[in-house]
Amino acid sequence: MTFIQKLILTLFFILFTLYSGYEVFEELTDFSDGESLAQAWVEIGIVIMSLAGLIYFAYIIAVQAKEKLKLNDNLAEVRKQLESSNVRLQDGKKEYQKVIQWQFSEWGLSPSEQEVALLMLKGLSIKEISASRNTHEKTVRKQASAIYEKSGLGGRHELSAWFFEDLL
């Protein structure tokens, strides 16, 4: 329920209670118009129910406000944890990129071969790699063959497994 809806409902309860209270007051002070005491008791009951409804509604609003504060606190805590996790994840990613670059250097890959190997690790096809590097597919195939030869790996799947097997 929105704040405006709560406000309107609260105002309705207050006005209804005040009006009913006024009617009861009128009934109790003036029995000359033929109104019965039973009618006055009915109106008193309506006033009591209106007050009870107003009090209950105020209670619900207070409970929801507490729950909202608790949820906001929980959300803030989760956001802090997420931010901390993101920082650790980025740090881990940077460290893993260093490991990959180190392994490429150990294998003696040229800068172009390193770039192709990274793109293959990211899952790009030969055609996509050649398009992103503005080279011919034949050039990328030759570089891929050189990567496999220098690394001693049998192909793209073994290259991926070399770097990702320990992570999983």
Q: How would you portray this structure in words?
A:
- The protein is mainly α and 168 residues long.
- 84% of the residues lie in helices and 0% in strands.
- It has six helices and no strands.
- The protein has helices at residues 3-29, 37-107, 111-121, 126-133, 137-151, 156-164.
- α1 runs antiparallel to α2 (37-107), α3 crosses α5 and α4 (126-133) packs across α5 (137-151).
- It is rod-shaped and about 110 Å long.
- The two termini are 46 Å apart.
- The mean pLDDT is 87.
Helix segment count?
A: 6
Q: How far is the first residue's CA from the last residue's CA?
A: 46 Å
Uncertain runs: none
* Biggest sheet overview: none
Helix share, percent: over 70%
C-alpha geometry: rod-shaped
Protein structure class: mainly alpha
Average pLDDT over all residues: 87
- Tally of extended strands? 0
Rg, Cα atoms, Å: 38 Å
Q: What is the percentage of strand-forming residues?
A: under 5%
**Pattern of helices and strands:** HHHHHH
Quick overview of this protein structure:
The protein is an all-alpha fold.
